[in-house]
Design a protein that fits this description.
A hairpin with a 2-residue loop joins strand 1 and strand 2. The protein has a single domain, classed as Phosphatase 2c, domain 1. It has a four-stranded antiparallel sheet. It has a three-stranded antiparallel sheet with strand order 1-2-5, with helices on one face. With about 200 residues, it is of the alpha+beta class.
Length: about 200
């Protein structure tokens, strides 16, 4: 098993690498927004933004996937045969407005929870790695608990493939030169009450 090839010491080194390097990327984004706010003489709260990103690399044994997240934007990893969903981050959500955290908040970096914002996994192969903003998540998954359910992700994949009212479909083939336009058209769905920005990145 490829998982067994990574010992405890190696895992610690990898975790240290993930934390050090991805935290620099997160801080770079924070400082960039901070500097822009100062230059334009606007309060930083005017630029509040969630941030998620992922890095992945293919090796002989499979893939190494690293993630970071602040805010209410999920990162989901579906294995090759769609039999398991792994959530790569936890969401900053509250029972009412104001629960969301933003990369613009300096307390993010001093919180004891900061290290838990980083995700790392090794996987032999996968079908989809998906990163989405709340404009997609709120409309398609409704509540955070639904992200834990594999069936909801299968339904979401079916939706992407055309099982929806608009019959908007995305053909997930490397040779598909229209995939960007197809995904853009799919994201133009109507969902009452859900008007947040829609960003969806899919690695397949």
């Amino acid at each position: 098993n490829y998982h067994n090839k990574v010992g405890e010491d190696a895992t610690k080194k990898i975790s240290h690498f993930v934390y050090n390097n991805l935290s620099k990327a997160a801080q770079f984004a924070h400082h960039g927004i901070e500097e822009f706010a100062a230059e334009t003489e606007n309060p930083i709260k005017d630029f509040h933004s969630t941030l998620i990103f992922a890095l992945f690399k293919k090796y002989d044994f499979g893939y190494a996937i690293l993630t970071f997240g602040v805010g209410d934007c999920p990162i989901g990893l579906l294995n090759k045969d769609l039999s398991n969903i792994k959530l790569m981050n936890w969401l900053d959500v509250g029972e009412f407005g104001g629960g969301t955290r933003f990369i613009t908040m300096p307390e993010i970096f001093t919180s004891e929870k900061f290290s838990t914002r980083f995700g790392f996994t090794l996987i032999e192969d996968f079908s989809y790695l998906m990163l989405m903003t709340d404009g997609i998540y709120d409309a398609k998954f409704i509540v955070e608990a639904n992200l834990e359910k594999l069936e909801n992700w299968k339904t979401f994949v079916d939706d992407l493939k055309g099982n929806n009212e608009d019959q908007a479909a995305v053909l997930f083939e490397p040779s598909n030169n229209e995939i960007g336009d197809q995904l853009s058209s799919w994201m133009d769905f109507w969902s009452p009450g859900n008007h947040d920005d829609r960003t969806l990145a899919i690695i397949f």
